[in-house]
Amino acid sequence: MAISNEELIGRADLDDIEAILATSNSDVDATMHEVAANSSTIFTWDYERSRAPLAKLYEKAKTSQWNANDLPWETEVDQEKVVEANQAANSYLYQSGIDTTGTPFENWGDKEWLEFGVESQNWTLSQFMHGEQGALICTAQIVETVPWIDAKYYASTQVMDEARHVEVFSRYLDTKLSGHYPINAHLKALLDDIITDNRWDMTYLGMQIMVEGLALASFGFMHQMSTEPLLKQLLRYVMSDEARHVAFGVLSLQEYYEQLSAKEIRERQEFAYEAAVRMRDRFLQQEVWERMGVDVKQAVKFVLQAPDRPIFQGMLFSKIVPNCKKLGLLDAADGWLREKFTELGVIQFEDWADTGEEYASLDMVAQDREAASA
Ligand SMILES: [Fe+2]
Ligand SMILES: [Fe+2]
Asked: In whole angstroms, what is the distance from residue 82 CA to residue 117 CA?
């Protein structure tokens, strides 16, 4: 049963720019988006605490809560200065050394690149905020749909974590940056797919493994690069929560996948691949080019050719690939997903640490409290 890219992602060629841009957000002025869920809400009468790894994670989550109000919000942020300082290191487009002749960037000087950097930051943090709301909603859904009491307990702590994440990104955008973006069309399509799937474990795969795996890598990268102390601290704390969230996905699915049939596992592989492509498409930042008034198709073509893009994109998948491997998704069905991740150029991360194990070392909140009481 060979299933083509055409059927899976709606295009034969991964880099088919027209097909990528055909997914665009037509709803940019809406203040609401309604999605009908198809899943059943499950009560369990089995209150026995039989899942020790989830119980341990739940205890950790209870003691590692933090209050968004305690971040140093008084920090003054000069966005242009921050962007300038980070741009050289942070952007794979700025001074990338590609010949810009005949591209929309031919006449761009430092002023335009700075403007792009500012828009790009507004866009990035806006997408983080929307993605966090997706996590809030998906995790609330998991509380309803997962049949295990230990998982319901843990998921309830994640709901609180995600509310705090939406809160901090929203507050940072409103008080420190210079504009919002509506949700990216590819991210929106992915969140809709996750929420409408009626199989409870697919919420985990889409959110905890794929979206949050990418978020964890992406926050880590931004935390490393950023010189702005408030954002740095905000990201440190969000990341400690995210590491638990991804671990929740790995620990739950490891158990559940053991009893799935080969056909069911194959469906999970396809879901993971579709999610990966949507997340890759979202990073082409089509809304930023549009707002800057450049030809979007030409800009995306330019982005796809940037020499450092494979490194940047690969880094985003550095948590997803090892976690998929741990879940057995890479090698099931004769390595179907391994092949797909190779095509995407992200397979090199398969032996990096998986998040089922590393969440304790990423708990910055606990580390700061220990340091403060020492
Ligand atoms: Fe989050
Ligand atoms: Fe999360």
From this structure: 10
Distance 53 CA to ligand 2 centre (A): 18
Q: Which ligand is nearest to the CA of 207?
A: 2
Residue 40 · residue 48 · CB < 8 Å? no
Mean pLDDT of the residues in the chain = 92
The domain made up of 108-373 has a fold known as Ferritin (1.20.1260)
- Report how far residue 233's alpha carbon sits from residue 101's, in angstroms, rounded to the nearest whole number: 41
Dist. CA 96 → ligand 2 center (Å): 33
Distance of CA 25 to the CA centre of its chain: 19
Going by C-alpha positions, the residue among 232, 282, 239, 10 that lies closest to residue 127 is 282
Radius of gyration of the chain (CA): 21
Query: Does residue 360 register a pLDDT over 90?
Result: no
- Residue 238 C-alpha to ligand 1 middle, in angstroms? 7
Q: Map out the domains of the chain as residue ranges.
A: 108-373
Interval between CA 314 and ligand 2 midpoint (Å):
21
pLDDT band at 243 (very low <50, low <70, confident <90, very high): very high
Q: Is the dihedral of CA 347, 349, 351, 353 positive or negative?
A: negative
306: left (phi over 0), alpha (psi -120 to 50) or beta: beta
Could you tell me the distance, in angstroms and rounded to a whole number, from the CA of residue 65 to the centre of ligand 2?
A: 13
Q: Enumerate residues 6+ apart whose C-beta is below 8 A from 49.
A: 55, 149, 150
Count of Cβ atoms closer than 10 Å to residue 131 Cβ: 27
pTM above 0.90, yes or no: yes
Percent of the chain with pLDDT over 70: 97
Q: Which residues, other chains included, contact 18 with Cβ-Cβ below 8 Å and sequence gap of 6+?
A: 297
Query: How far apart are the C-alpha atoms of 53 and 73, rounded to whole Å?
Result: 36
The Å distance, Cα 142 to ligand 1 centre, comes to: 15
pLDDT per residue as tens digits for the range 50-90: 999 999 999 999 999 999 999 999 999 999 999 988 876 55
